[in-house]
Design brief:
Blueprint (H helix, E strand, L loop, with lengths): L12 H10 L1 E4 L5 H17 L4 E2 L5 E6 L5 H8 L2 H11 L9 E8 L21 E7 L10 E3 L21 E2 L9 E6 L4 E3 L6 E3 L2 E6 L32 H15 L34 H5 L1
Bound molecules: fe (ii) ion.
Fe (ii) ion binds next to loops.
Amino acid sequence: MKKVSDIRPTLTDSQVLDFCKKGYLVLPAVVPEDINRRVVEYTNEIVLERPSLKIPRRSKEVEFHLPLLEEEWFVEHVLLNDEAAGAVRSLLGKEFTLPILISDHRAETPMPKQGGWHRDGNYVHNKKLNYVEVFYHPEDVPVEKGPTEVLPGSHHLASAPVGHYGGLKGGVRFAPPDAPAGSILIMSYNLWHRRTLSTASGFRHLFRYNYWRTTMPVRDWIIEPDFDLRTASYEFFDRPTTRPPTRDCNDAAEMFFWLSGMHDQFAVMGGQCWPSPHIGLEGEVQGFPGDITDERVRG
Ligand SMILES: [Fe+2]
């Protein structure tokens, strides 16, 4: 039986930094098709046999808490899936903990009204990454079935989302062709997301669970020989938020430093300085934390 200690990190410096900028990553079709089918069959059978697994909700979307942690095949191929768990290992360090609760957010479609933008309950807003939220689709969820939409970069926003906001420019749907059946979405718990409206008849499954960190952060993912903290691009192009770009840049850099176990060294001087993309004609960088000394600041 595969264990957490068997999992090796799969993300590189650039991919971890990309997660810091966007607040999520998608692993397309990483769960094999036979496991996807087994998940759906198992779920459909058990919810009929044990109606007590159903958690009441007000909408047509219902939530089932499923005993999938007892199923070795699910733990091995979904929770400890090499790609998914490798990404979790990269972000949360060794000895991360497995989920304690697996829920299927099952919607009977069509649902002509979309869900409101939100963060899930009990979020803690800071630059740390002590836990991640995971969504898994065992079946295709095309736009007609109301896939989840996320707002890249929104994990850094201090404000809470407003539920009645409609379409937000830059929203990304967790849907084919980028996310077919068997895809896994790993995201900051603080990322704004919502269920989109659906027009097709049927059911939409969305499995949701969390992993947690148990060790102090350290840069022990896949180190890129050429990756340089001083000149790395912390800038998030195509960013949908309306904050000044340097705010996103600073937040992504601070999160990367925290994940690297270097948060105590993080500092931003201001102006045309690191980590904003203001680089001199000769490649000079101003204000990199390692360059700041008492002597220099005192002049
Ligand atoms: Fe949610």
